[in-house]
Amino acid sequence: MADLLGSILGSMEKPPSIGTDERKKAKAEKALQAKQQEAEKKMLDNFKQKIQKRIHEFIKDGTQEKLKLEPMDKVLRAIVHDVAEVAGLASFSFGLEEDDRYVMLWKKEFAPSDEELLAYRKGEEWDPEKNKELQRQRELEEQLEKDRKSNPSKDTPSSNYRDKYKHLIGDEAAKEAARGLVSNSQYGFVPSKNKQDSRTIEQVLADTRARKKQKVEHNPSQSSDTN
Hints:
Layout: H1 2-11, H2 20-60, E1 66-68, H3 74-87, E2 89-94, E3 102-107, H4 114-121, H5 128-150, H6 159-169, H7 171-179, E4 181-184, E5 188-191, H8 201-218, H9 220-226
Antiparallel strand pairs: 1-3, 2-3, 4-5
């Protein structure tokens, strides 16, 4: 039985052994991988130090409210966000494409509004003066709507409406324009003089008879039908 088992084991192929060349190759690849990892770690450490220095200078600069960094990959952006958080800054990433993504930093006392963030997310430039004007117009429109709802039968425009005229054509011209307007629910505001009839009763009756006479002369059949 032992001889049979030995014979079977002897006839089986031995597992391939790793040669010297293969061992050297695997060792070299492992060493290369470790070297690459070390180089990457060193690069990230250097980047972090540079960002820390740049953010420190930004905080010390009293003339800067925000800092826009150059586009960078996701790993570097993550480092920026970490450093900014430790420094007490607000940070956001913007950019429509991954290659264009960048980080912008704000000092906490100058934290961005929702409107500013929305503009950057759309890839637009932020104009604070333009935003103030748009905000003022929205407030005027909201106030006009409130006035309209609270005074639906009011004929004269509200003070805010005159303010809007003032912004467009000046103070005195705005007041005169507002005085000369009356409410018309279907057509908006029209000059009040356009809705007034300055004729006397005698003139109105004479004009009416003249129109009837002219109509009969142009259409005699209508006169016989009427009579």
